[in-house]
Amino acid sequence: MNTTAKKGTNKRIYWTFIMLAIIIGATFYGNLQEQFSLEFLVFFSGVPFFLFVIGSFGLLWPVIKPIGDEIYISHALMIGALFIILFFLHIWVILPRICPDFGACLGL
Q1: Could you tell me the CA-to-CA distances from 43 to 3, 40, 79, 83, 103 in Å, in that order?
Q2: I need a surface site. Which of 19, 24, 52, 65 has the fewest CB within 10 A?
Q3: Membrane-spanning regions, if any (predicted)?
């Protein structure tokens, strides 16, 4: 198989994941937010987050792909840093917009 065609297909798939995450997020947390309970919205927010993370990692993989054995530790640190940044954005930016009193949303 031609590697150029495969690269283009992979990029389209990863962009599709990102667009799907945005569409799901806008639909459930914009237009349909009043139709679901806060508990459901908080727990379901992991779905668009997961799709966005898949797309982000997939698009960034060619840039941060390890080349030799000695680079694996720095690669693992970069992947971990990227995930933690995306996770903290989800926790500190997106979830507070869904539910300002997070503990009350979970029924705690």
Answers
A1: 39, 5, 24, 19, 13
A2: 65
A3: 12-29, 41-64, 76-95
| pTM (2 d.p.) | 0.76
Quick one: the chain helix, strand, coil %, rounded to 5?
Answer: 85, 0, 15
Q: What is the pLDDT of residues 41-81, one digit of tens each?
A: 888 888 999 999 999 988 888 787 777 666 777 778 888 88
Q: How far is the C-alpha of 92 from the C-alpha of 80, rounded, in Å? A: 18
In sign, the C-alpha dihedral spanning 58, 45, 90, 107 is negative
